[in-house]
Amino acid sequence: MKLIFGLMLLKTAACLEFNCRFNQSDPCYAALGHKLNLLMVDTSRYDLKILKIINYNSDDPDCRVKNDRIKENECDLFNNRPEVSFINGILIINRVIRADSGTYRLEVFGSDGRKTTKYLQVIVEAPIGSVEVSIIYSSCGLMRVFCSSDGDPRLFSWTLNGDPLMDGNIIDLDEGTDGNISCSVKNHVSHRQKTVRLRDLQRVPQGHKCSEFHCSFNQPKPCYATLGDKLKLLLVLDPSRYDLKILKRMNNTQDDPVCRVKTDKMKKRECDLFNNRPEVSFTNGILIINSVIRADSGNYRLEVFGSDGTITPGDLQVIVEESSVSVVFVLVWCFQMMFLLGLLGGFHIYMRHTSGKKQEDQQVRMSRFREGHEHTAED
Ligand SMILES: *[C@@H]1O[C@H](CO)[C@@H](O)[C@H](O)[C@H]1NC(C)=O
Ligand SMILES: *[C@@H]1O[C@H](CO)[C@@H](O)[C@H](O)[C@H]1NC(C)=O
Q: Which residue's CA is minimally distant from atom 6 of ligand 2?
């Protein structure tokens, strides 16, 4: 246990070390908090002045090196930082800080009085910290996998079971996808990666209406889509390599409608399955039905023809559902209207009732008053 802990410490504390030289044409990348070696020139033969270009004037901080030594009283560039040293023509910054970024000018003075000037741009980046993979969204037959990390400008890339996927920190996968997904994050100074089993990730569902459904022919579950919405059916990943035949099982006879796809194109004349519906198209191995109709329900079979004559079949059940959201919405709306109208009616009746009663009361009181008056008059 102690050993593991020690190893972990060692790993997190591992020092990143970067070497740059003043004649390089590329920028010099350094890792924040880590070590940077800046190779100058043969300092036994030359005197040096390193200057950081800030305002292009005499106030810019500089540092003089003579006889392979930093002249402490002529060096306002590193503010006497103890982690900065100069050994054998190499300026060593043991703990790079953000302020070390910038453009430096090196002036080299030869014994003959000649001066040569070299430049170097230093860019400080924070190394990649821990990498986290999560599923932040899962519905509509899709799951959205999210990769996050700290560190400066980062590039994200994914692999699924070793195969590369699209770049970017967010990737959408079919809900049924399983396997080991791995997110790699890199910047100029570091690289980290995290691999997780998709099945083990906590999924956060999002209560929203789907307008696009994604299914694939290798998914074990039926494929659900809502009437009128868009359905994307993944047939194969590499469509240019295969010919395809999609068949809808109706009577299990030769008459069942089919659709053939060759070199990533739907053969219109060999496709009675979709009756030339303009909203059905095929691109990059994906069959897209822009507006699902009820008749799209059913059991489909896909046959993938390899160039070597092999046929790989796949089956998928498509279930087209009513848009339950809108039915519920209409029902709720109806109930709300009924309730409001009811309230209005009730209020109306109440008003009439109370105003009628008031009039009655007034009449009674008036007649009583008159009676009383008459009584007193009689007295
Ligand atoms: C920079 O200088 C070093 C040593 O003088 C030399 O080995 C290297 O090739 C030079 N690099 C470039 C890019 O000129
Ligand atoms: C995923 O990783 C686990 C553990 O390393 C391994 O047992 C499993 O076979 C991997 N699954 C795939 C599909 O590569």
A: 180
